[in-house]
Structures are given as C-alpha cells and as structure tokens.
Specification:
By secondary structure, the protein is α/β, with parallel strands linked by helices. The protein has 28 helices and 26 strands. The protein has a seven-stranded mixed β-sheet, sandwiched between helices. The longest helix has 15 residues. The radius of gyration is 26 Å and the shape is globular. The protein starts with 8 loop residues before the first strand and ends with a helix.
C-alpha cells in the first residue's frame, strides 16, 4: 500500500463501531500489548481517551491513554495494524495527542527494553528517562517521555507518589502464577507493563494458610513463589481484630476454613488501607457495597480494577469524610509554643529545629505582614501548619505549607493535602465581583512535599521560577477583557510570559476541556467565550447540606459562618433522565425546599468535571472516597443496587453571596430568551442566561 502519511486522519473514538475496530487492532498485537479487559476499553472510550487513525476510511491504528494527577499523559497502548506500518500512522496519532494536550507537562510510557518498539520511540522524539524491572522476571522496562511544557512539575517533586496497593486473594495469585488456569489471562492483566508504576500488588500472610490446604505439589510450588516474588502487607494486629469483627458481621460467621481465611484477608487489607482487594469469590463480591461502606475497602474482580484505574488511584488516600469526621478547624497561631515543631520540621531536607523556631518567631513578630495558622482535629492535635506573607496588595506568598508527620501516608493526610492545595489561604475563594481585582497566591515553601506540589498543580497552580502560582480573577470576562487583564498582569510582573502564554493557549482552544482548565486556573473567574455547557441542577436541602458541608442547619444555608466547604471535590447521584449531559460544564445549584431555611433559590456554583453512568452499586464504588453519602442512603434513594444512576463529579464550588430565588431566576430566564421552569430536573441554559444569573449572584452590595 503506497499511501502518503499525511492522509492518515485521526479522531477521538466516538462510536461503538470505532471501539470495535480498536479492539480488533489490540487483538492483532495482544502478545506484545498484553491483556486489556473490555471494561478498560469501555472506560477510556467513555472518557474520550482513545484516538483512532484512519487511512482511506479504514482503521489503521490507535492510541489509548489517560491524564494523571501529575498533569502527565500516560500512554497504555499505541498500536498500528501490521498492514499499515511505516505509513506515518504512529506519528499522526502522537501529533494529535500532543496538539490536544499541549498544556500538560509531558507524555510518558513504559516499554519492554527487549521489544523492537524500544528502538522506535527515540525516533519519535521520545527520550529514555529511566529503567525499572518489568513484572516478568528477568525483564526490564524503559521509561520514555516527551516534554510538552518547559516547566514540568515532576522536576521539583523529589519524593515519589505513593502507589495504590491492591491486595490479591489466593485464587487471583494462583491465577497469575499458573498459565493453565482458566482465569490466568484476566487476572494477569494486573501485571501489564503499563501498570507497573500505577499500582502495587501485594498478598496477606493468610495466603500461606490457604496454600497449606492445597495438594503437596501446589503447596510446595506456590509457597516458594509467594515467598520469593510477592510482597506481603504488614498490618497492626489490633486493627486487624477490629476489622475482622466488622467483616464477620457482613459475611456471617465462618463455616469453613476457607471462609475464615477470607475474613482474615479482608481484615488485613482494610487495616493497611489497601486501595482494593482483588478476588473472584462470588460471596465476597456480592457483599462488596456493604464492605465498602463498613470497612472502606473496594472489593473487585481483577478486570474491574484495571477498568476503573482512575478511581482506584484516588481511593485509599484522600477520603474527605475523614476530614469531616476528624472535626477539623483552622486557628491562628500566636506564639512559638503553640506549634509542635517536631511534627513539621523537615530535618531530612536540612532544616534544623533552631532555624524553624527562629523563622516562626520572626513571622509572629510581624502580624501585619504574616499570618500563621494551624489546622487541628477535634482532640486538639495539630494536623497542618501554614505561614502566609502578604508581600503586595494583590499577592499572598505561602512560605510554609506542611502536613504533620503523624498524618503522612495516611488517608486523612491525603485528604488534608487536597484541602490545603485547594485553599492554602484557609477560606473559600472570593466570589464577589466587587472590583474584579486579580490576585496571586504563590507557594514558596523550600521543602514542599511532592504530594502537596502535585496536588497544587492538579488544582490550578502553575510552576514559575521554582514556585507554584495561581491567579484569581473574580468576575466575568469577555475575550478582549481577558487579554487586556493578562497584559496588565505582565506589565506589573505579577506573572511571567510563560504563564500568560499558557492561559492564552487555553483561551484560543475554546473547547470544553480547555475552558474548564482555564477557569480552574483563574478561579473563581468565568469567561463568556468557549464551548462550555451551563446547567441549573436542583438539589434537596439535606443533600446540599451534606455535599457542601454546611454544619449549622438552623441557620440560613451558606451563611458566612459556615462558608467552609472542606471537600475540594464532590459527587452528586441522580437518575439518568434527570441529569446533565456531557463531561464538562458549569452548574448552578438550585436548592429546593423551605425558603425560610435557605431553600427555593440558587445558592452555589460548581464545575462539573466528569459524568459516570452505570448501576448505582458500581458508580458508588468509584466515588465512595468522597465520603459524603453512605451506601444505605444511596440504596434507599435508588431502590435497588442495580438501578441505573449518574454520578456527577464536581469541583471549584463557590457559595454565592447573593442567592436568587425561584421568581427572580425565572425572570432572568425569560429576559434572556428562555422559558420559565419549575427546576424539577436538570435544565441546560444558554451562556447569556448563565452569565446574567452569575453576575447577579456575585454582584457588589
């Protein structure tokens, strides 16, 4: 076939027919690419993360990828039909990937060093940046990267992120080790090369008891393999006993030795805060929703774990219910003795206790310039420590942003990291468009942890001169006003040209993903240009109270005293026929109910970042970490565990200062060319309608 490579067209996979073509190409290269469950293809398809190349209207190749929390694009597969190789298909796919993710930090992938593809990636302008052992004994992976941004975050993160731990039960472990077993292929998907630096596979010590009940040959072989090749998790015995009692309540009293081992496996996995427990046991899988609620452990088949990698990587760490349960509060520090220096000292990075206390003493001596805060739990223990300096009228510099050592590596610590990255200054973002004055928040802690740096970057900060900076531009901006404001920021050296160029690139792209990222980077600002959908979504008062953490119910909803929404991200469950469509969009929340208690009005604004559909038990599993609703509440609302549901993931929530009641909201709808509405289900509104509502919701007094 003599085809000009330029004729290879690339598009996002948008139909089942295209997805089937992708799976067919995967089967052609399965011996190299490895196992990929249909559910994983379906998940990437739903997220728009598969691109297909066509030559003369025939599928020629595909790239399957995802975007992680470090702002990287990770390639899982890039495959070209054998009949279409050497026709520029791989280049066309990569060019499309680069063009559509130009604001990310880099593209990264793992490739077996002994595969022919390892010699091809450098020819595609990728650089080998490291090596690591492959899952297959004796083999090695080469890590390749292509930089998209001159200031990538990963260069300043010295500590590697913690990988989610997946604990495998005995049968899954045996599936992986025995190629002749029926489930070898599906379970071995957990060993795919592209997952090497995404999850860690572990077993519990109870596997040795399970193996002791096998025949002599299996027992001997598997015991040797487990002890040589599988890492075991180490759990606190008291925690294991506590979780065993809960597991027994869910599964019932163990009748057989196998049942007793199941109880121990689950309890140990829960005690070490594993991200997931891999099993094929129907008895355990049937109890998965209740186990998730009672012990916080996801129980899934291996194929489900691979398919739901995005949500898996979030589980086990930031669990926002832990913040609420801990009763956290932020308080101002007034003396050096108020800070437990040992909990926040970074001695491994060269910081001494004397230097720490002198710095703190100097900051406390200048209260007009500095504010020193600590976050404590309900027992008064210090969990975090923050020092903010106001260097200019429009700039705050966060000189210290620390999590207590007692919280490092814990689920509560992960939630605190997300909370501080979203609100380092300790309050919700100013949402009153009083003067539209842009301000900057700069994080300059010289020993900022990698976890905090990654979370800040994920939440709209940009890397500039060794610091992390985020611009706040309250109000609504036309394209011309936005460009003029960037020019002003450049003129007063508030930002550098690299950041301004990044923001202008997002504005020029104007697609929903780009505008969503742009508004995150100028939050709480909104732009009048771009293709982003707008919705009014009704919510019951009691659900609004839970979602937005409004702790004082007998006061008006979203009163100033309760303006602390500790969940940076949240999720709301609805029935499919009553929900917004698309992936990204702005949401105005219409709280129903008694007007005297704050209902019957629009009161908050959020950004929808994802929409997941499926049986409520599966959807709930993906979002349980957000810790708002219990399974019992969800099941009662939907009736059956298998009922179809939509999970609306949202972030950047603003609690608006000037609520608009039902009557006024309908007046604005009519004034902007729409029909009046009862707000019984999600209503898509026009851009002019949204901006008029938003301007009034945030107007000056």
């Amino acid at each position: 076939m003599n085809i000009d490579p330029a004729l290879a067209s690339v598009e996002k996979v948008a139909t089942i027919k295209q997805l089937d073509a992708v799976k067919e190409i995967h089967r052609e290269h399965k011996s190299i690419l490895g196992q990929m469950p249909d559910g994983a293809f379906d998940d990437r398809f739903a997220n728009g993360q598969i691109y297909l190349a066509n030559i003369e209207n025939a599928a020629a190749g595909y790239v399957l990828f995802w975007r992680n929390r470090s702002d990287e694009i990770r390639i899982a597969h890039l495959a070209v039909r054998k009949s279409c190789q050497r026709l520029g298909v791989a280049n066309a796919l990569l060019d499309h990937l680069k063009q559509n993710h130009s604001t990310c930090s880099r593209i990264r992938l793992n490739c077996r060093s002994d595969f022919a593809a390892a010699q091809i990636w450098p020819k595609l302008d990728f650089v080998a940046c490291g090596r690591k052992p492959a899952k297959q004994p004796g083999k090695e992976l080469t890590i390749f990267q292509y930089r998209l941004d001159d200031t990538p975050l990963f260069d300043i993160c010295e500590d590697a992120p913690h990988l989610p731990v997946v604990v495998c039960d005995t049968n899954v472990c045996m599936d992986i080790e025995y190629s002749e077993r029926d489930n070898h292929e599906s379970s071995s998907g957990l060993l795919a090369d592209w997952l090497v630096d995404q999850i860690e596979l572990r077993v519990t010590e109870e596997i040795l008891n399970d193996l002791d009940r096998q025949d002599q040959l299996t027992r001997s072989r598997m015991t040797s393999v487990v002890q040589a090749d599988w890492d075991q998790v180490d759990a606190d015995p008291d925690e294991v006993r506590r979780y065993r009692a809960i597991v027994r309540e869910v599964l019932g009293k163990a009748e057989r030795e196998d049942d007793l081992s199941d109880e121990k496996h689950l309890a140990i996995a829960a005690a070490v805060k594993a991200a997931a427990f891999a099993t094929r046991d129907r008895r355990i899988l049937n109890a998965a929703p209740e186990l998730l609620e009672k012990i916080g452990l996801r129980v899934q088949r291996p194929s489900e774990i691979i398919a739901e990698l995005d949500s898996l990587q979030s589980s086990g760490k930031p669990h926002f219910g832990d913040l609420k349960n801990a009763g956290i509060f932020r308080t101002q520090v007034t003396s050096v003795g108020d800070v437990d220096a040992e909990q926040f000292l970074k001695s491994t990075r060269g910081e001494t206790i004397g230097e720490f206390r002198r710095y703190l003493d100097d900051a406390l001596a200048a209260p007009k310039t500095y504010r020193v805060d600590s976050i404590k739990n309900g027992d008064g223990e210090q969990l975090a420590f923050i020092v903010v300096r106001r260097s200019k009228e429009s700039e705050h510099r966060v000189e210290r942003l620390r999590i207590a050592h007692r919280c490092e590596g814990t689920r509560l610590g992960g939630a605190l990291v997300e909370h501080l990255a979203e609100r380092p200054l300790g309050c919700t973002w100013s949402n009153a468009a009083v003067c539209r004055k842009s301000t900057a928040t700069v994080i300059e802690d010289p020993v900022l942890s990698g976890d905090l740096a990654r979370s800040c970057f994920h939440r709209g900060f940009s890397y500039q001169d060794g610091e992390l900076i985020r611009i706040s531009m309250p109000g609504t901006w036309t394209h011309a006003e936005f460009e003029a404001q960037l020019d002003q920021l450049l003129a007063r050296n508030a930002i550098q040209q690299s950041l301004a160029s990044r923001l202008r690139t997002l504005a020029a792209l104007s697609d929903p993903a780009a505008i969503r990222e742009l508004e995150q980077r100028i939050h709480p600002g909104k732009v009048t240009f771009g293709d982003l959908s707008n919705w009014i979504v009704p919510i019951q008062p009691e659900w609004a109270q839970e979602l937005f953490d409004i702790r004082i119910w007998n006061r008006p909803l979203f009163a100033a005293e309760t303006n602390l929404a500790i969940n940076p991200d949240s999720v709301y469950y609805k029935r499919p026929r009553n929900s917004p469509t698309g992936e990204y969009g702005r949401i105005l929340w219409y709280v129903s109910g008694d007007a005297e208690k704050g209902g019957n009005s629009i009161r908050a604004c959020s950004m929808m970042t994802k929409r997941v559909t499926g049986p409520i038990k599966d959807v709930y599993r993906q979002y349980e970490r957000m810790g708002v609703f219990e399974w019992k509440q969800i099941k009662e609302h939907f009736g059956k565990a298998t009922s179809e549901a939509v999970a609306i993931e949202f972030t950047d929530t603003e609690l608006l200062p000037h609520p608009i009641n039902f009557t006024r909201a309908n007046q604005i709808l009519v004034q902007t060319g729409m029909k009046a509405n009862q707000f019984q289900s999600a209503l898509r509104i026009t851009a002019p309608t949204f901006h008029q509502l938003y301007d009034e919701l945030t107007k000056a007094n």
